Amino acid sequence: MFNFLMENSSPPTVQEIAFAFRRWGLVGFWVQIVFAFIPIIILIFALFFTNNPDYTRPGNLYIGEFLAFGCLSALIFTIYWCFRYVKLSEKLENPQMRPPKAEVIQCLWIGLIANILGMFCAVVVAMGKVATLLWQMLSIPQGASVISTPGSNQAIINRGTLVVPLDMVGVQAMLSTIAAELVGIIVALWLLGLVSQHHSHHS
Prior knowledge:
Number of helices: 5
Number of domains: 1
Helix content: over 70%
Strand content: under 5%
């Protein structure tokens, strides 16, 4: 796709590729940090309010939460890898430190795969969370009143079926993670296209 978009242009020089690595590496780094801010705040929120029944349901801590921690770890790694593109640009600008094309392409593939895996994990967690919330909502009888204290002539629903705030912020965290990983994928694909085009004209 990238070769098709740039087929009528001259192949990029090493200096142009180095500049692209620095520019897009910084863009990916800061954009991912902005998107990662929400999941990190939510993680702190979850750690401090886990035992508060107003924010969580009894027995909370599902496998989805463990996967969410894994997604956050993957996001931290991809943020670091975007910064690695910036450091790699410094080596590309220096003829004495310039790495082989194969090493540059391998670095981009590692970043691409890490972002894809992080996005896949976040999508699975988000779908599981939404499915759980949907099941909880469907489990509440139509017209029933959800109350905290039993009363006469009132329907009583177990608090375990309520949608609590932590459920919604968890979904928001996964959406932010997906957006951050998408940025990382776009950056890696764009840089990979530039390097591949240079390689095809200088092999």
